[in-house]
Amino acid sequence: MYNLGDATYKSQPKVMSPETVDAILERVLRHSQHHGLKEYEFIFHGGEPLLARPDFYAHFLAKAQKRLSPFLKLRFGLQTNATLLTKPWCQFLSQYKIRLSISLDGLPSNHDTYRQDHAGRGSYHRVEAGIRLAQQHYRYPLSLLSVINCQADAELTYSHLASLGISEIDFALPDAHHNLLPLGLSSAQELAQAPFGRWLIQVFEAWWNQPSPRPNVRLFDQIMGLIAGIDNGFEYFGQRRNEFLIVETDGSLEAVGTLKACGSGFTKAGVNIQTHEIDEALQTPLATLYQLSHQRSCQACQNCHLYAVCGGGYLPHRYSESRGFDNPSVYCQDLQMLITHIQHRLLLQLPASFRKRSGLELLPLPGALPNSTDYQADYGLQSFARN
């Protein structure tokens, strides 16, 4: 978000003031009581949230427990690059049961291509050291967030991440839209070949064929659930509302930070936690569109046979300067490939007679996929298809 054209962070404080924290908790309490909410989740994000001192979190958490816990079940998460993790940090995060997710983009050479410090040095080995430290001193399961590099070897990338011994991996598509190509691609023609879908299919196969125990992969779990009729999607998939807001360090209330890729100041809505209620922020046009993005997709998406699963994709990936968000996802071909592959993989395990009786049908293969016979042979599906 700091390298995609939005410069508004330069005019904001690096860390929230105590007054902003107090305002957040008061607004959350009023919002929850007004709507009868029973649970609330806070995710500490950045930048790098561990740049804030531990006393910042101690104040936030102590005040949240005192002010909110009599009325709400509270959950906390923190997304970090792990380079600043220490044993005291791990003990602190454990004490408050803060769910810890670490950003690591695959193999060392791939991670270091884009995740560098101000001196241009790659951070992989420091991140890995942070992971090992957390595995020793953090009391709860870790999760890993990995941004996809479609030019990296997919099977090697997954094998490497799985070897780290982390229980959950979440793969993220690079921030991109119709006027902003994903990092690593040089032309729209490259993107039209669905390189991310092909990459994720290879990862899916490596994961699918891995003996237990294997990590959970949230992207795959969501798609398989949706294919089975269970809407456990979040942001990328499904039909659920995205009930989520960003609070910037100056108290600004905004829609999801990835939308900053659409232009500098794009997410600014003129509302602040100090002066506005949460409902007022949720009712701003961009926040409303984000919440309802899986219901307010373009007509082409609504007419698609995959719409119940993909929900039109992630809102920021739909943007173009000419049509706003009235587009399919820039990753539409990739999502079609991946969803179709997973559906074939699941259904072809079932006897053909059972599929016929139950009315389950294989989805048609997208144009970017090879023909059905080659496809089944390439991925070892032909033996299932004969059942």
What are the SSEs and their pairings?
Elements: H1 18-35, E1 39-44, H2 54-68, E2 73-80, H3 87-95, E3 98-103, H4 108-114, H5 124-137, E4 143-147, H6 154-163, E5 168-172, H7 188-192, H8 195-208, E6 216-217, H9 218-227, E7 246-247, E8 253-254, H10 278-282, H11 285-291, H12 299-302, H13 307-310, H14 332-347, H15 352-358, H16 372-378, H17 382-385
Parallel strand pairs: 1-2, 2-3, 3-4, 4-5, 5-6
Antiparallel strand pairs: 7-8
Q: Can you walk through the features of this model?
A:
- This protein has 17 helices and 8 strands.
- It has 387 residues and is an alpha/beta fold.
- It has a domain of 233 residues: TIM Barrel.
- A 6-stranded parallel β-sheet has the order 1-2-3-4-5-6. Strands 7-8 form a two-stranded antiparallel ribbon.
- The C terminus is likely disordered.
